[in-house]
Amino acid sequence: MAIVERAELYFELFSRKYEEEEDDPFIFSTLALSVESRGSFHFYGALLMKSEYEYLISQITLMLDGELNKFILNPVEPIFRMTIEREEVILYRFMLRFQTGKPRELIFYMNDCEINRFKEELKEEMTQILPPPFLP
Q1: How far apart are CA 84 and CA 79, in angstroms?
Q2: Of 106, 88, 111, nearest in space to 36 by CA
Q3: Rounded Cα–Cα distance for residues 129 and 107 (Å)
Q4: By three-state DSSP, how is residue 96 classified?
Q5: Average pLDDT, the chain
Q6: If 0-12 CB within 10 Å is exposed, 13-18 middle and 19+ buried, where does residue 31 land?
Q7: Alpha carbon distances (Å) from 132 to 22, 25, 28, 60
């Protein structure tokens, strides 16, 4: 599971299985966020497409390599919008704008080590996504 957890932050993005088989399927996912024990969000469902996970991983890689300072992920399913911006050499600002229920915006920070570990865990998860169960 791609998780960042410390006293003031819990952030999880976990890809579980394909919703259906096709070239770019939606992937059932868990997205959970809690910042300073306020403003938590939890979602389980068809959250991102395979290409959107791949885009997120590639953009984080470019940021860690110093080739990119900011990117925005606008998923096809408009549950949230994610902006990641480099604020300092080793500090990244995440802004999640949720569009379900009462619109809200949550901001948290990750350091170089945390965002790299998050990216590697997410990359590993993408190789282990379960196919949909067989239905007779």
Answers
A1: 17
A2: 106
A3: 28
A4: strand
A5: 83
A6: buried
A7: 11, 11, 10, 28
Going by C-alpha positions, the residue among 77, 59, 76 that lies closest to residue 68 is 59
Three-state SS letters, 22-73: CCCCEEEEEEEEEECCEEEEEEEEEEEEHHHHHHHHHHHHHHHCCCCCEEEE
Which structure tokens are listed for 103?
Answer: 């619109």
Token pair recorded at residue 82: 């994610």
Percent of the chain with pLDDT over 90: 32
- The two tokens of residue 6 are 């410390």
119: amino acid identity, one letter: K
Residue pair 121/12 in contact (Cβ under 8 Å)? The answer is no
Lowest mean pLDDT among 12-16, 17-21, 111-115: 17-21
Length of the chain: 136
Tokens 């885009």 map to which residue?
A: 55
Full-model pTM: 0.82
